[in-house]
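cache lookup: miss for this entity combination. No prior model stored, computing from scratch. Input as submitted by user K.M.:
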Amino acid sequence: MEAAAAGTNYLNNGYGVTSWLLTKDHKRIAILYLISITVMFLLGSLFAVGIRVELLTPQGDFVGADTYNKLFTMHGVVMVFFFLIPSIPAVLGNFLVPMMIGARDLAFPRINLASWYIYVFGAAFSMYAMLAGGVDTGWTFYTPYSSASSNTNVIPMALGIFITGFSSILTGLNFIVTIHTMRAPGLTWFRLPLFIWAHYATSLIMILGTPVIAITILLVALERGLGIGIFDPALGGDPILFQHLFWFYSHPAVYIMILPAMGVTSEVIACFSRKRIFGYGFVAISSLAIAIFGFLVWGHHMFVSGQSVYAALVFSVLSFSVAIPSAVKVFNWTATLYKGSISFEAPMLYAMGFIGLFTIGGLTGLFLSSLGLDVHVHDTYFVVAHFHYIMVGGAIMGYQGGLHFWWPKMFGKMYPEGPARIAAALVFIGFNLTFFPQFVVGYLGMPRRYHAYPDEFQVLNVLSTAGASILALGYLLPAFYLLWSLKYGKDAGPNPWRATGLEWQTASPPPTENFESTPFVDEDAYEYGAREAHVV
Amino acid sequence: MSDAHAAVAHQHQFDSAEQQKDAATLGMWAFIAQEILFFGGLFVTYIVYRFTYPQAFHDGSHHLDITLGTINTAVLIGSSLTMALAVHAAQTSKKNNLVFFLVATLGLGSTFLGIKAIEYSHKFHEHHVPGLSFDGPPNMELFFSLYFAMTGLHAVHMIIGAAIIIVLIFQAQRGTYHSAYYTPVELFGLYWHFVDIIWIFLFPLLYLIGRH
Amino acid sequence: MSSKFPLFPEQASTLAADVDLLYFFLIAVSLFFTVLIAALVIIFAVKYRRRSENDVGADIHGSLALELLWSVIPLGIALVMFAWGAKVYLDIARPPDNAMEIFVVGKQWMWKIQHMEGRREINQLHVPIGKPVKLTITSEDVIHSFYVPAFRVKKDAVPGRYTELWFEATKPGSYHLFCAEYCGTEHSKMIGQVIAMAPAAYEEWLTGSDIAPVALSVPPAGAAAGATSGAAGAAPEGMAKAGEGVFLQKGCLACHMAAPGSLGPNLAGVFGKERKFVDGSTKVADEAYLRESILTPLKHVVEGFQPVMPTYQGQISEQELMQLIQYIKSLGQPAEGEAVNAPAQDDATTAGEES
């Protein structure tokens, strides 16, 4: 085994554009993803700014109706398909999955690179659709509006999403095979870090759910292009069939977005409490339970679309059930804090914020599962608030917490703790101010996707926009200090957090082959108590 | 596992050839699971509309050429046989047989695609292609939309398969596959059999509605 | 900035209070758990903050008892929530038998409403208080959704099918009507008012002329009066009567005659009856079936008849369909021995309040 030359790590092991664009190193691919999804997040955020500025006043006076409809559509499409779904798996998952299991790379490095190129290609199609005038169907593409009525660039956008779906599928495939077949000696399933369990469950959803939306969105494109009537009732088609096919993926998709963040949270809470996660086995299995149950609840998006009462009852009770494994996780994380030894670095602040916001988001999901209530709040801002609590308060905080936690590992530099804590606080405060009023205005009856609204909803909307400006600051700050840290940050060393986990047993940044020699694992995850975590 | 050759090289991320084979095999199965869901969306759509428009589906099905469809089914099943024989040849290090059976599989697969192309051109001339001045009773266009979507998606999978066979033939000629290393042939065989099984579902669902 | 700053919608229907009670229950449970988790997190964070650099946490693996506790109790609470929500929903989803019917067609970007007695409205719905009202809803183009927050009811308007929504307004007033399913450019302008009135006032309103007369379809050049309002003070024509006009204008009478040997079945008394088809299957003739028979007649052919009815897809508007269906509903039983279906005379003219 050739020993890495002193100071050689994956970042400086080969310079030049081609060494990056043709890399097979999972860590470099993770960085490529980091850059691309940050660009997409910025784009999605700009659309959000447009929405919130328009909603400051009841009249539609900032932009025209068509423009507004394009803004919320593209905000949704970019954030869901090009930011949230890839984010943690493609950046942190790609970087850490091999390292956490003691492997040198993923099972299929070239497929991993192809995955990134497919993502970029899909994003390019979608960017084209946006630049050529945008799309105004909503990210949900309901037919027949999307297939027969809208006169915007639906087909290129649909194709962009179709293409990017394969990026997701290939990533999931890679993770499943890697976790099954490449664990280091001694690393049995129930010794795996919970981050791995979370990504395994996520990957199951990625490979089983994504193909369904792929074929569905392709059918919409075909219908639109050829004027056939698969989903258009005027031609004999069924628009509700579209909804079933669409939500069959898009509901599990939300678990693709949250499960990895839950994995991050487990790692961070264990490290900053210096304690094993309470109920490890239950937390691990709950990830699988969420993945499986998540496939059974899609009808709760369609309670008022004319479903039979019986279908509604079944989907409602299943939707309530899927909340239980999530609740189990929250209780276990809280119990982990008990008799822990807790410190409050930025990752921990994000993780604690995650617990609070995910709890609220998850509980409001119960409101939506409840049939009697959903009739009133469906398609109102109540729903918008609910899913932003989970996706932003949950998934994005998980992503940011993870980014900060593993930043020293990825780049060998510490980020500055002071600004990081301020950013975490700004995000938490700004987020609540942005989205809590939306619960209220939603129950009041303000529908979603409204360009203009009745006067009495204005105060709550102004509060929401004010919160959004604070949230924006909370997101901008890390962009500056994280970049700053790359040059000026303190050197991190292999294990600045004194965490357990194989990724911390090697240099920061790691060498290309990850480890000097294949690790051997003889203990459970999170053995903080037994002895001081190994420090290399 | 008998190993008449020197230790087989494996990619750097794996610890052994065996681990690499396990990973590749699991990968192919996971990929096939994903493909089932991919086709699944179309099958669900088919089921829904067949129950909604039984007459249109019946009529549409009778406009398909059952002779060509049956021939194609036999051709494809035959190609699965030749593919299985190819895998066996690789397992037993019989290079010439391997190349022969791979070429036979390619030939049969191409025959299938050729016959499909003939069927498609018939449909084009009869104005049964949705969206291109379709001429037929109501809702039959929906049947044909599904016909083209399902057989089209299947055909795309076959074309990709054919391309891979060509690569395999070249590699086989160079002696890359033998009893200690035949994973690509075996796993491609899995893929090819899967594509065949999809057709075995498509054929009765599309061609055999109400025929006695 | 508006001086009104409501935080809660008014309760203006019989079910609104039930929905709000369920809401408060869920808020209470959510508040409880949120406060519980937040308090525990904060208390633990403070109490167990790291005091010296090399401290580690206690070596605790877990507790089966706790896992069961916090799985079973939340599951129990969730099932209670489900049951309660289901009960409220069953009330919302099942209109009383004696509900009066009103017909709604959504189209980009307006709500077209037709009362049985004939009055039509655009973006406004007048209803009496104290009486259950059932809306039959469809769309002419894309999916819309009929939403009245004050009543806590909502139902999608789906093209190609009928959906239903019911409520009983409890206090007079004017309430927001929103379209709640994104439908294109003017989605947020597809709004209006539901105006609840005392029953007497409503009856009086019914006899007035349309507020916004719109020629919604080409008036039939036939004996039956057209549906647009004209002379001030003239009572608007009931839907059934308008439907009779459609029946004549579209030529339905040519085949659907009372005489034996006619190409189409006699339609008198057909509504609500079970129909038997050539393939042996049966179906109850409800609104959806009648609509399907008109638009896709070959889908279910009545036993004893040939599949010769042409389709009216594209030749009849949603409003006309609803009128036609009301007309067919209003047709009485066939007379003893002879299938009677002479339109324009007898009880077909009774402004069909009830089916």
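stored under new cache key. Residues 239-273 of chain A form the longest helix (35 residues).
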